[in-house]
Amino acid sequence: MKKALIIKLIGGNYTLVDLDTKEEFQARARGGLRYIKVEPGSVFHRTVSQRTKKETEILQVSPKVGDYCYYDDSEDVVLITEILPRENELSRPDISNVDQLLLTFSAVEPDFSFNLLDKFLVLAYKNDLKPTLLVTKIDLINNEDLKNLKANLSYYEKLGIKIFYVNSLDLSTTSKEEIFLENKITVLAGQTGVGKSTFLNAIKPELDIKTGEISKALGRGRHTTRHTELYKIRGGYIADTPGFSKLDLDIFEFGELKWYYPDFYDLSPNCRFTSSCNHLKEPGCEVTKLVNTGDILQSRYDNYVRFIDEIKSKKRIY
Ligand code: ZN
């Protein structure tokens, strides 16, 4: 069976890239396409989801950009015959198997927001996405502030998050090869004004199209026909995203938020109430103890408490 990656969807027309020949061609989806859904599980429950893989659910779905699929080209019209299990999927933009979420933040103008970073991270983990951080405009901040920013961000590096720092003018300070991994799908996200387009412009030689067209194409897609596309970059792919613009914690129950904090998760066995501890005001909480000793970043904990309040107040309204 021939295997391909879906890189573009407009209306019902898919563009596929054969994984062996790298040839690009158009295809349609066969009717009644089956897709095997793996039980949902967070990144912290990989072993559980592996075990439950046997008890899979068979659903009918439409192929998405980012899907790996089998196809049949024996007839005039190439048909997608099967979609392979998805590692993860996003609905805005409609992309599956995202290998990396490249979160873009500026050091200044707008100021670096740890609140926004923490919010992006819980949403990334909830969606099974691997976040990488791109910090822009580091030449526009004074040395002292940059030193503090880097010191605080080193906490996140310890959580396994890769961080790249780039200058507002010379983006060659960071090697693009390190950011864009071979054959991997990266989704770019971040507030407006953080320098996403500047960054994309700097790496434009690697892009097949003008960067401005990425947002335009995706923007148009949201309003009229469905259009999602992956652009080739450094042997991998990138999708710009207007999604994640509205960062909503609605999808969380307050008691589950803690599971998307790998640093808290690792400590909960040491809390007196173990997994039922929400690390708020419970006695014998290891997390709050380590916030006090400075081992957990204070701002990260404060944001956690804020998010809990946010979730609780929203639920009360309904
Ligand atoms: Zn606790």
Estimate the strand proportion.
15-25%
Shape: globular
- The arrangement of helices and strands along the chain is EEEEHEEEEEEHEHEHEHHEEEHHH
User: What helical percentage do the residues reach?
Assistant: 25-40%
Overall structural domain count: 3
Explained architecture:
The protein has 318 residues and is of the alpha/beta class. The protein folds into 3 domains: 2-86, OB fold (Dihydrolipoamide Acetyltransferase, E2P); 94-240, 3-Layer(aba) Sandwich (Rossmann fold); 254-312, Ribonucleotide Reductase Protein R1, domain 1. The protein has helices spanning 46-51, 114-126, 143-158, 176-179, 196-202, 212-223, 262-267, 286-292, 298-317; strands at 2-10, 13-18, 24-29, 34-37, 57-60, 68-72, 79-83, 89-91, 94-96, 100-106, 131-136, 162-165, 185-190, 227-229, 231-233, 236-240. The protein is globular and about 65 Å long. The chain contains 9 helices and 16 strands. The protein starts with a strand and ends with a helix. It has a 6-stranded mixed β-sheet with strand order 12-11-10-13-16-15. It binds zinc ion (ZN). Zinc ion is lined by residues 268, 271, 277, 279, 282, 285-287.
Layout of secondary structure:
Elements: E1 2-10, E2 13-18, E3 24-29, E4 34-37, H1 46-51, E5 57-60, E6 68-72, E7 79-83, E8 89-91, E9 94-96, E10 100-106, H2 114-126, E11 131-136, H3 143-158, E12 162-165, H4 176-179, E13 185-190, H5 196-202, H6 212-223, E14 227-229, E15 231-233, E16 236-240, H7 262-267, H8 286-292, H9 298-317
Parallel strand pairs: 3-7, 10-11, 10-13, 11-12, 13-16
Antiparallel strand pairs: 1-2, 1-6, 1-14, 2-3, 4-5, 6-7, 8-9, 15-16
Helix pairs in contact: 2-9
The structure holds zinc ion.
Residues 268, 271, 277, 279, 282, 285-287 line the site of zinc ion.
